[in-house]
Design brief:
By secondary structure, the chain is an alpha/beta fold. The protein has helices at residues 9-18, 24-34, 49-58, 131-145, 164-175, 195-204, 219-225, 234-248, 266-276, 301-313, 334-343; strands at 65-71, 78-83, 89-97, 100-104, 108-110, 125-128, 151-154, 187-191, 209-213, 252-258, 281-287, 318-320. The strands form 2 sheets. It has a 10-stranded mixed β-sheet, sandwiched between helices. Strands 5-6 form a two-stranded antiparallel sheet. The longest helix has 15 residues, at 131-145. It binds S-adenosyl-L-homocysteine (SAH).
Length: 345
Amino acid sequence: MNDITSKDLNEIEKVIGEYGESKFRAKQIFEWLHKKMVWNYDQMTNLSGLLREKLKKDYPIGEIKILKKYISSLDGTIKYLFELEDSHIIESVLMRYKHGNSVCISSQVGCQMGCKFCASTIGGLVRNLTAGEMLAQVYLITQDIQERVSNIVIMGSGEPLQNLDITMRFVKMINSPEGQNIGQRHITISTCGLVPAIYQLADEMPQLTLAVSLHAADDEKRKEIMPIANKYSIEELTKACKYYTEKTGRRITFEYALIEGENDSIEDAKYLGELLRGMMCHVNLIPVNKVEERNYKSSHSSSIKKFIHQLNAYGIQTTLRRKLGADIDAACGQLRNRYIKERGE
Ligand code: SAH
């Protein structure tokens, strides 16, 4: 792997060792890349010209640039489209909250999971992102807004637990004191429910926040909207979630997109209430974002109210997600699809 932006400090030390340079050069390089967020060897002024030339040749840094930027006039949410070195396009979102700036990043180009209501999966999976490409989304946004990013949610396009190694590498690197030093507690990973990876995450990164996209509380309904439900039953999924809460002492967030006539009845709410009763969790209800290519509609506000009321009766904490950036297509994968369509691909 000659991608230096995805290498941790130990790995850069190895590179430097092979060059016969002193070890502290590795820390300098790591800090340029991940603390100062400078991805250009020419600007790494404390390295010798010779070392910079070697690095340029052996470890070229791929260019990632902001292709487009859409600013919501409603709430200051900014949606970014980035172009990667191989000209694939990904998207990220900056959300501004009272408690700080939060960035939602993508983990893959496209997605293989096939959820029926989701725009990211329409063209299938193109490729995984590298840890460096995940980091670049955060760095480019930080530089663009000239403010610190305090929270990260891996909830953009892609399934982050399909490549747990890459996702964990990203977390460790963004966590690093020689880098941005963003604590695990400020990072949320969202998954459609890859059960074995949930166990692994609970064991290896117990301080992260886990969000699980549930969207239906019985298997048959879930299978209709989420193909992953054919692989793992709700029973297996909730068992893994309980293991997670017991092992980590951390509350899980269940995401539930309300789709009119599909999963938003009182019966659905009762099912969900029964399933989650007594679990250390929180339900995040999201009125489904309309996706042009799909015919799902968001639930009426009257059904949403009844749904929340029913869940509360089971003692389950519930929030209705505020729609941020409603004027700029801020839902998963929508912007990339529109851009690609307009470009005529
Ligand atoms: N693959 C991961 C992360 C990416 S999707 C996962 O499934 O969790 C991020 C979240 O957006 C998921 O909860 C997903 O179900 C939700 N989502 C996708 N399309 C949506 C839409 N049209 N309306 C509302 N939520 C949507």
